[in-house]
Structure formats: C-alpha cells, structure tokens
Amino acid sequence: MAEKRNFYEVLGVERTATQDEIKSAYRKLAMKYHPDRNQGSEEAAEKFKEINEANETLSDPEKRKQYDYELDHPGMSGFGGGFGNGGFEGDFSDIFSSIFGGAFGGGGGGARTQRRSVGESIQFEMRLSFMDAAKGCKKTLKYKRNAPCTACGSTGAKNGSSFSTCSKCSGRGVTKTVVNTMFGRTIQQSVCPDCGGSGRQIRERCPDCRGKGFVTQETEVSIDIPAGADTGSYTKYRGMGHAALGGGEPGDLIVAFRVEGHKIFTRDGFDLHVELPISFKTAAIGGKVKVPSLDDTFDFTVPEGTQSGQTFTVRGKGIKTARRGTGNLILHIVVEVPAKLSRSQKKELEDLFDDISLKQHDRMKQYSDNVESLYGDKPYKE
Which of 24, 68, 112, 207 is the most exposed place for a label (fewest CB within 10 A)? Predict the structure, then answer.
C-alpha cells in the first residue's frame, strides 16, 4: 500500500501556513482537479480526493495539531494524549488511558474505566444552483439517523439506572491475561469484551430502544448556506449524526456542496467571468453595452479600439461574502466579425480602410517591417 503524501505538500503550502493560506490553496486545487472539469480522468479524481483529505485535516485546528504531532513523532500516532512536547510525561497509565479512553490506577489494583464511544458521522452531498451558492440561501434537509433514546438517557438500561457490576471484569472495565514469554511472565490488560470498558452491564433493557441506547427517527435541520459556497466546501453540525452506543457522544452531520454550472457566469474563487460579445463597429469606435451581474444588468462603456480577447475588470461586481469581502467581474471581449457581406458592403469597408493610414497602426507597421526584412515582401500595401 502506497504511503500517503505529506498533506502540506499536497496543498503546496508550508507548515507555517495560516488558515487563510490553506483555504486559498485548497480552492485553487479543487477547481483545477474537480471531476466536472476532468471527466474521465482517474488521475484528476485521485488528486481531488487527496486534496480534500488534506484540507479536511489541515483546516481543522485540532486535527492539524494532532497531524503535526504525528509528523514530528513517526510511529507514535494515536498516543497524542499520553505525550507532551515531544517527550514522555507521567506513567504508563497515561498510555492506556489514551488507548482505552479511561483512567488506570497504578500498582495492579486498577480503578474502573469508562470508555465512551463516538457515534458515526453522516455525510450528505447537497446540490446547489450557481445562484444559490453565489448569493447564499437556506435549505431544509430531512434524513434518518439513530437519535439518542430519551427514555434511558442513551444508556440502554430501563430508566437509565438498571445496571449491575460486570461479572467478567468486576467493574474495572479491563481484563488481565498472564502471558509466558522468553523474557518471563507478563500481564496484558485489554478492554473487557462483555461490558466494552464501562465496568457495568445492563440488568433490564430499556423497552423503547431495546437496550441499544438509540432510536431511528427522521430528523429535519435547516442549512444556512453562506454566500460564496463552492464545490468541495462543506458545513458541519456537531452532534447531529448517529447516536453512540452506551450513551457516548453522537457523531456529526457533514453537508458537502456540489455547485452546478451557469450558462453565463464562470467563477474563480469569488470573482466572476463573463464572455462579452460586441460588434465590430462597437470595438472600433466604442459604445455602451448591457452587461449581466448577479443581481441585474448595467451599462458598460467599451472604449474605442478594443481588441478581441481583451479583458476589463469591474470591481465589486463579483460574489459578496460576509467575511471574505467582494469579488470582481471580469469581462472577456469577443469581437464578432461579420461572416458574410454583400458586394456593396465590402466596397464600403475597403474605401473606409483605404482612408486609414497604415502609420496609425504601429503594431501592423512593425509586423510588416519584420516580414519584409526576412522575406523581402510586405504583407500590407502602403
């Protein structure tokens, strides 16, 4: 199995990168390798999956802290709670605590441990129209989940109190096994298989959830989608996922967004791009044209002598966000040259351009001189 790449290298940022720098790098890469832009490309799909995994870790301060620790201490992942500042602190009970989620007493007597499980998260993909994502909106999401049982407080026991001490571990939550090795006899401790580390067993099951600690129910949640949401971005609702066994912490609801394309706009971050076709006449002598924005249309003055492929930036006409400011609208000029002309129209154009001195077109003159110096022939007639 191939070793995973360093998440910082995946996003192309330094380990000292700020959260804004990480978000910016992620957005650019997500746009580049998005499956909608690279249909049929397995390499792009794998890249997209990789950068999403890197972003999920590095954009979460707690996950990033743990990841940085594992980078500095290879082979010690999963023991983050038992070590500090790169060295071992405390006794071996700290290590067992980090593995089993409880506290162990020294000496061999052992105190009861509580291992609280965490419920599974629910992932949901929500499709958004281009305008809903750009301007922000509210959506209602209905889904089924295993919700905590209120009758027993998610314990699975009737009235939340019908427990007895686990007979296998005598309430300690762990079992001990003596193992003979070439170095002598050792004692191994493991989580009690009967009680799952809780130290107690259900004496009488809750009739509502039948001892599971949760009931399946349909849940409805209102999703606030911020302006500027993009494909690959997501929102997380803590505790709205599946309930955990034994009254542990519920999982999260993670709603990821997939934004549909638009027939007029394309976007780059919070900037909008529009192709603006103009007539040959408007390009030559200038004029006003109607330009679309997210909210309405407005007049834009095309300067005379505008070339096809030229771009103009209209500031503040892009996507407006609450925290990240407002993007711009970039106009990409496409000069529409007439495909068919009548004889009289052709004659009028020839007469018109014959009156225009070649000297006024410095770029054409320079081109003509360069061609003449190479081949002895001028591409334009004076």
Answer: 207
